[in-house]
Amino acid sequence: MLEQYLDILSVYDAAEALCIGKNRVYELLEKKELKGFRIGRVWKIPKEALREYILSQSNL
Predict the structure, then answer these.
(1) Which of 3, 27, 28, 59 has CA 20 to 30 A from 41's CA?
(2) pTM of structure
(3) With contact defined as beta carbons under 8 Å apart, do 5 and 13 qualify?
(4) pLDDT confidence of 60, banded at 50, 70, 90?
(5) Cα 38 from Cα 26, distance rounded (Å)
(6) How many angstroms separate the Cα of 42 from the Cα of each of 12, 36, 38, 45?
(7) How many CB atoms lie within 10 A of CB 46?
(8) What is the residue extent of each domain of the chain?
(9) 55 closest CA partner among 34, 37, 27
């Protein structure tokens, strides 16, 4: 599912992968529901953090 993405994703890439808006990704980052880090003003999301978030939201 996430194979097409690099190991570090932008907010835009994360929004595309999750099929949600960029503003929602920013909300998840601010609430620390989705792990990420900032380089200056730009958020970066590790692919593994995105995978963890997806698993935490599913009933698996």
Answers:
(1) 3
(2) 0.89
(3) yes
(4) low
(5) 11
(6) 11, 10, 5, 10
(7) 14
(8) 8-57
(9) 34
The amino acid sitting at 19 is C
Separation of alpha carbons 33 and 52, rounded Å: 10
Specify the amino acid at residue 22.
K
pLDDT tens per residue across span 1-57: 788 888 999 999 999 999 999 999 999 999 999 999 999 999 999 999 999 999 999
- List Cα–Cα distances, 28 to 4, 9, 20, 24, in angstroms: 22, 14, 11, 6
What are the tokens at 1? Answer: 């599912």
